[in-house]
Amino acid sequence: MSLANGRRYLATPGPSVMPDRVLNAMHRAAPNIYEGEMLQLTESLWPDLKALAGTRQHATIYIGNGHAAWEAANSNALRRGDTAIVLATGRFGHGWAENAQQLGVEIALTDFGTAAPIDLERCEAALRAQPNARAVLVTHVDTATTVRNNIKMLRRLMDDLNHPALLMVDCIASLGCDEFRMDDWGVDVMVAASQKGVMTPPGLGFVFFSEKARAVAKTSDRRSPYWNWDNRADAEHFYMHFYGTAPTHHLFGLREALTMITEEGLEAVFHRHRILAQAVWAAGAAWSQEGAFALNIQDPAARSHAVTAMRLAAPDGTRLRRWCEDHGGLTLGVGLGMAPPGSPQADAFFRLAHMGHVNAHMTLGALAVMDAGMKALGIAHGSGALEAATSAIAQG
Amino acid sequence: MSLANGRRYLATPGPSVMPDRVLNAMHRAAPNIYEGEMLQLTESLWPDLKALAGTRQHATIYIGNGHAAWEAANSNALRRGDTAIVLATGRFGHGWAENAQQLGVEIALTDFGTAAPIDLERCEAALRAQPNARAVLVTHVDTATTVRNNIKMLRRLMDDLNHPALLMVDCIASLGCDEFRMDDWGVDVMVAASQKGVMTPPGLGFVFFSEKARAVAKTSDRRSPYWNWDNRADAEHFYMHFYGTAPTHHLFGLREALTMITEEGLEAVFHRHRILAQAVWAAGAAWSQEGAFALNIQDPAARSHAVTAMRLAAPDGTRLRRWCEDHGGLTLGVGLGMAPPGSPQADAFFRLAHMGHVNAHMTLGALAVMDAGMKALGIAHGSGALEAATSAIAQG
Amino acid sequence: MSLANGRRYLATPGPSVMPDRVLNAMHRAAPNIYEGEMLQLTESLWPDLKALAGTRQHATIYIGNGHAAWEAANSNALRRGDTAIVLATGRFGHGWAENAQQLGVEIALTDFGTAAPIDLERCEAALRAQPNARAVLVTHVDTATTVRNNIKMLRRLMDDLNHPALLMVDCIASLGCDEFRMDDWGVDVMVAASQKGVMTPPGLGFVFFSEKARAVAKTSDRRSPYWNWDNRADAEHFYMHFYGTAPTHHLFGLREALTMITEEGLEAVFHRHRILAQAVWAAGAAWSQEGAFALNIQDPAARSHAVTAMRLAAPDGTRLRRWCEDHGGLTLGVGLGMAPPGSPQADAFFRLAHMGHVNAHMTLGALAVMDAGMKALGIAHGSGALEAATSAIAQG
Amino acid sequence: MSLANGRRYLATPGPSVMPDRVLNAMHRAAPNIYEGEMLQLTESLWPDLKALAGTRQHATIYIGNGHAAWEAANSNALRRGDTAIVLATGRFGHGWAENAQQLGVEIALTDFGTAAPIDLERCEAALRAQPNARAVLVTHVDTATTVRNNIKMLRRLMDDLNHPALLMVDCIASLGCDEFRMDDWGVDVMVAASQKGVMTPPGLGFVFFSEKARAVAKTSDRRSPYWNWDNRADAEHFYMHFYGTAPTHHLFGLREALTMITEEGLEAVFHRHRILAQAVWAAGAAWSQEGAFALNIQDPAARSHAVTAMRLAAPDGTRLRRWCEDHGGLTLGVGLGMAPPGSPQADAFFRLAHMGHVNAHMTLGALAVMDAGMKALGIAHGSGALEAATSAIAQG
C-alpha cells in the first residue's frame, strides 16, 4: 500500500524533469547529417544558446556531460604549468579544480567551505597572491551546497586589481534558472550542460568563451582535437561543430527546450525560479522553528534559485528522502559533499531541486510531501511551512 | 510572468492523467488485426477487466465513450415501452435516463438533487410504485455532484422487496477508484469507460452484464448490430469483439493500464484513492471554517474517492480555477449541472479530480495551489488546510 | 535466422502504416475537454475533413470503427420497412447491407460477385425494380475484392431515371487514396474511417451527409441519441459533437494526419496512390505470365488505387504471405470473402495494401519481397515483374 | 507531385534507422542517477557489450561520438613521441591517424587507397620498418570506402613478426554487422559507436581494451580525466563510469538495442547482414553490365556487410541520390573521401547502408528505388538487378 503511484516527480538537481515536448521532439527518425534539416536546426541553436548565456561571443556544444565541459574549458584555456586560482564553495568547485590539476595545472585554492559563498576579502587576498594566475575558476551555483556566488562583484574586484586572469565560471546548475550575463559581467569562459535548467537529457556540455579566452587558447598545449573549441565555434563543415557525428536526437531535444524558453521569455523564466525558490525558503524557515531542520545556506542572497540543500538530524535526512519516494511519489536528491560518504552525518543532508521544467504545483507538492513525511516519521518540525510557501507563491 | 510553466497537472474528472507507460504503449506501429499478437493481447484483457469489475460474468469493450456505454447497456437491456426506475443524484444520472427515454423507454424518475446520495426510503417508494419496471438505473459515482451511492444497500432493498428489475449501475467515474463488486453486490449491468480510473485515453466504453441481463436482452427490440452485446462477449471471430476493426492502439494502452493496476493490486489502488480523498476532505474542512468555501457533499460516506465537487461564492469558483491554471499549472474541472449554465451561480462550482494515475505529490500539490490561489485572489478561507491534508496523508 | 528483423512493413488494408508524426501527435498529456485548445483543434478539423470528402455539406466524427459509421449512416437515413437497393461488389458491400437489414430495412440486393465492379445495365434494372427505394448502398472500393466502382456514372444513371433514392457510398477503403467528389458526384451519404487513407489509428468513423439526406433523416425511427447526426453536425456545445467525451488523442492524431494531407496536396496524394497502384499492377502483369498468379480484378479502370487483391494456386497464397512475414519483414493482408473461410481455396488469396502513408520505397520493397518469396518457395511466376514496377514508377 | 511521402528510409551509413523500440525506451522520464534502476540497468550493459565485441576484457562507454572514441583510445594507449603504424583504407583511417598526430604521436602511414583492403605484404614492410611502434591503427570497415579488412590475418602477421605493437581497430561501422572477435583475433583496443549497427542515436562511443593495452596506458601522458579508461572500466562509484552525469536516455536506448540483438542472436544478426549485402552486390553486378555503374570494392571478401560504396559517371551519383530522396522516399549516403569535396568527381560516388535495423523489405526496396531512379533519369545500367537481388535473398 503506497500513495506513490501516479506521475512521479524526480526533484533531484539533475537530470531534472524532461518536458513532454522535449521527449517528443527526440522521438523521431534519425536525420541525414550531411544535408538538409539537421544543418539548419543546428544553426538555429547558436543565437538562442548565446542569448541564454548573455553573450555575443562564442558558443560550442560538446557531446559530453558537465565534466566534459569542465575538461573542454580547461583544455583550451589552460596550459601545463599555468596557475589557476580556485574559489571553491562546494564539491563541484573542487571537482573542476581536480580536473585542471590532472591536466597539469597548478591550483591555488581558497576554500569557502560547504555553507557559504565566496567572500570578497579572501578573494582579493587570493588574487594578490597570484598576480600571474592564468585563470580564476568559480562556480556560479554549486549543485552540492546550493550556494550561489556573486560573479559580477568578483569581476569588479578583478578589474579593480587589474588582475589579468581569465574569469571562468561553472553555470551547470544555474543556466536557465538564475540570472547570468556573461558579457555584461565580464566572464571569459562559461561552462554548462543540458540536463538541468536546459531541460534536455544528459549528454550535452556547453562552453561559451570570450575573444580574450580564445586568444589565450591558441597557445594551449593541452587541447586535443576533441576539445579544441576553435573548430567547433567556427566550423567550416557541419561535422566540425561536433568533431564528427552530430548528437542528432539531443539536438532535436535542445531545439525544443530553447524554443520553450524563448516562448516563455528569459525574464519570466528567472522570475519563476526566483518565486519558487522563495516558496521553498519560506517553508524552510517555518520548519526550522522546531527540531533539527535547517536550510544549508543562511543568507538568501547566496542561495541558488534552482536547488536547495537542507538537513535534518542524521539519519532523518535519508529517512525522509526514502519516505517521500516510497509513499509520496517524490524523489529528493541526496546530499553531496557535505559529509564523508558513508559517515552517519551523510544521512543528514538532502536536496530539493526546483530547476527547469518546474511550476508552482510541482514545488508546492514537493514541500507538502516533505511535510507529510516528517509527520509520518515523527520528525519534529515547525508548523505553518506550507501556508508560508503558498503565501510566497501568492505574492509572486 | 507566471508560475505555471512546468509539467501541468490536469485535475479534471476525465480524461485524467495518462501514465507515460500507457502513452508509450500506444506509441507503436499498427498491428495485424487478422492474426498474431493483437489477438492474444485482446484475450488477455477479459480476465483483468472482469477482476476490475468484480465479476465472473460477461464483459464487452465498445469503441465509444461513456455515453456509448450508456446506449449499449440501454439498447440491450431495455425495450421500447419498458419502464426504468431512475435514481438520479446528478447530471449524469439524468443523462443516462435521457438516453433511455430517447430510445423509447418510460422513465420513472426519483431525483435526489445535486448534493445528496440516494435515500433508501424514497428508493423503496420508487420500487413499490413500479413493480414491473424492467430496470433500475443509478450511478455509483456521479461525476457532476461527486456523490457516491451505496449500491450494496440498494440491492439489498430490491431483494427485500423481491423486485424483479435489473440493477444497472454507471461506474464511469468510479471504476478503478472506488471499491465495486458487481457479482457480490448483485449488479446486473455495469457501464464504465477508459478515461478516468482506467487511465487510458477516451475512446473505449465497457459494459459488463449478468446472465440474467443477458437473457432479458435476447428480447430487446432496440439492440442494433453495433450495440448487440452477445456477439461481442462471445465473439466467434476476433473482429466480432468489436463488430469490425479493433481499436488497436487503445487496446495497447488498456493492456498497459490494466497491467499497472494488477502490479499495484486492486486493494492498494482503492486504498490510495481513499487516503487521497481524505486529504482533500481534510483540507476542505479547514477551508470551510471561514468564508464561503464548501464541499458539495456533507456526508463523507457519500463522497466519491475519485473526484470532489466544491464551491465558493460566485464567481470565485471560476476565478480560482483560472488562477490555478494561469499561475499554478493546475487545471481544475468546471462545475457541471449544479446551476444553470451561464447563470452567475455556475461560477461558484468547481471540481478537483483525484482519480487514476494520481499520488500524494499530485494531490497535495493541487491543494497547495488552490490555497495559494485563494490567498492571491483575496478569497476568505480557513487556515490550516494543507497541514490537515498532510496529516491525513501521514496517517494513511 | 531470418531477414525480417528491421523496420517491419504492415501492408494490410487497414490499419495502414501510422506516420511517426501522427503517433507523436497522440503521445501527449490529456487535454481539458471543457475549454481551450481541444475545442479549437476540433473546429479546425471540419473544413479539412470536408475538403477531403469533396463536400460543403455536413460532416460528423463518431467514436467507432467503419462498422459504426455504417450503422450511423443507416440509422439516420433509413427507417424500419424502408427498402434499400444494395449493389454489392464484395464482402463489405454485403456487410453494410446486413447492418441495414438487422435494423429492419428491406434489402434489394444485386450481387456483382467478387471480381467485378457494378454494371450499369444491372443497376438500371435494380433501380427500375424498386422505384420507391429509400436509398442505394454501394462501396466505392470494397476492401475485400479491391474493386473500385464508378460512382459518378451510377449517379448519372439515377438522375437519368429520376430515381429519388439517396445515394449512399462506403469510402472506408478509398478516402484519401482514390479521387472522390461527394458534391460533384451527387452523393448523399458517405461513410469512412480513420485507419486507412486517413492514417490515424482505428477508432474514428466519419459520416458525411447532404441536405437531402438530412431532411430524410428527420423522420427516422432508428436513430438513437448516439447515432443522431444532427446534434453532432450542429453541436451547440463541444461535447455534443461526440455525444459525450471527445476522443482526445485520436483528434490530436487526426489533426496531424489532415495537416500532412494538406501539406502534400490532395491531387498529389491521389497521384501518388495512382502511380504506386500502377507499379503493383505492372508487377502483377509480369508475374501472371507464368504459373497461377493473378490479380483479382481484370479491368484496370475497376481497380482500387489503395489495395490490390491477388491469388496464387492454393495454398500458395498463404505460404507466400507467411514467408514474407517470417523472412522479409512484410505483412500482407489475408484474402477476405473470396472463398469460404477455412476452405482450401481461402489459402489462394491475399492482398497488398498501398494506402495512406506509403511511398515508392515501401511499395517496391513489398513487391521485391514477394518476388523473393516466390523464388524461395519455388512458386512459378513470370519474370521481369520488378523492372516493370520500377518502370511504372520512373514514368510516374 | 512525388512518390516520396510515406515512411522515409534513411539508408545513410550512420545514423542508421532507429528501431521504434529504442526510441520508445528513450521516451521516458529522467531517472535518479544516485540510486535505483539506472544503476542496475547500467551494470547489465557490460556483459552484453562485451559479448558484442567478442571480449572478456574491458569495456567503457563514453558520452561522445566515434571521434571521441578515437581520441579516448589514442589518449590512453599512446604517448607523445610514440610511433603508430597506420594502415589506411579510407578517409576514416586517415582521420583516426590525424587525431593521434594532433595528440603528438608520430604516424607511419601506409595508404592502401580508396578501393582496396590492406595488403599483407605491404603491412609486413610497414611493421618491419617500425619495430618499436607502439601501435598499429586500422579500420575493420572504413565507412567511406566500405572496404573491410581482415583483422585476423593482420594479427597473425604481427605475431609471426613478433611485433610488440598494440593492435587497435576501429569497428565503428562494423560492430553489430560484421563478425568481429576481439579476444580470438588478438585485438588490443577496439573503438565503436552507438549510431550504426548498435541502433542507438549518436552520442555514445565505446572503447574496449585488453589487459596488455591497459598496462601500456598506465604510462600515458596524454590521458586526461575525461578520457582515462581505468576509472570508467573499474568505477568505484556509478558516476565514475561516465566521469560525471550518466547519459541516462541513451542508456535506456542502448539497453533496448542490446536486448534486441540478444533476442535475435548474434549469429543471426551477422547472417542477416551478410545476405542483405549479397543482395546489394548481386544488384550491383547486374547494373555494372552496362553504363558506368560500379561497386567501389571489387573483391567480395573485402566488402563490408554494413554499407556499400558505389559510383556512376559524375554527376549521376548525386543526381540519382537526389531523385531517390525526392521521388522515392530513400536517402542514400553521399560519397566521402573518394574525390576532393566540391570536385566534379565527388558527384560520382554515393553509398547505400544496410546496417543495424534493416531487413529484406528495406534493402530490396532501396535497390528498387535506385533502379527506378536510373530509369527515370536515363542513366544507362544493366538489367536484371532486382531479380538478382531477390534471388540472393531467396537463397539466403
From TrEMBL, chains A, B, C, D:
GO terms for biological process: glycine biosynthetic process, by transamination of glyoxylate. Substrate binds at residue 351. Residues 34-281 form the Aminotransferase class V domain. InterPro entries: Aminotrans_V_dom, Aminotrans_V_PyrdxlP_BS, PyrdxlP-dep_Trfase, PyrdxlP-dep_Trfase_major, PyrdxlP-dep_Trfase_small, SP_NH2Trfase/AEP_transaminase. The modification N6-(pyridoxal phosphate)lysine is found at residue 196. Its cofactor is pyridoxal 5'-phosphate. Pfam families: Aminotran_5. Keywords: Aminotransferase, Pyridoxal phosphate, Transferase. GO terms for molecular function: alanine-glyoxylate transaminase activity; L-serine-pyruvate transaminase activity. Belongs to the class-V pyridoxal-phosphate-dependent aminotransferase family. This is Aminotransferase. The lineage of its organism: Bacteria, Pseudomonadati, Pseudomonadota, Alphaproteobacteria, Rhodobacterales.
